[in-house]
Amino acid sequence: MKIIVDTNIVFSALLNSNSRIGRLLLNSRNSFEFYSCKYLQKEIHRHLSKIQNYSKLNDDDLSELINLIESRIFFIDEELLPEAIITEAKNLVEGVDFDDFAFIAITQFLRPGENLRPRNH
To answer: Which one of 9, 59, 79, 101 is least enclosed by Cβ atoms within 10 Å?
Structure first.
């Protein structure tokens, strides 16, 4: 089963890797395929000091946990998705949370029957 993970899910796992979400991300590789956009990686690193503060993990442990969680996720570069999917995703999040468009676009891209050929850059 394919599951799209957003920033909140990954931040939750980073703050408590023993939580239900943390265990799901870390221990269910044989049951689920996790997908996200490259934007998620930028968000993790942008909020690294806040994550470290709340998680109480030292630099090495936090780095190891980030690497482990990221290794469980297939990252898709949202900039390479077909323009029609990007436009549809932006329309869907209009007035809600624009930053979520990339997660919606990945969801649309992975839908069965979609044209899975990314655009060229």
So the answer is: 59
In the 8-state DSSP scheme, what is residue 88? Answer: H
97-105 contacts, C-beta under 8 A, 24 or more apart = 99/7, 99/39, 100/6, 102/37, 102/38, 102/39, 102/78, 103/4, 103/6, 103/36, 103/37, 103/39, 105/37, 105/78, 105/81
**Are β-strands 73-76 and 2-4 bridged in parallel, bridged antiparallel, or unpaired?**
unpaired
Cα atoms in the 13 Å half-sphere on the side-chain side of 67:
6
What mean pLDDT do residues 52-78 have?
Answer: 93
Domain ranges for the chain, please list them: 2-76, 80-110
What's the whole-model pTM score?
0.83
Residue that has been written with the tokens 């109480």 in this structure: 56
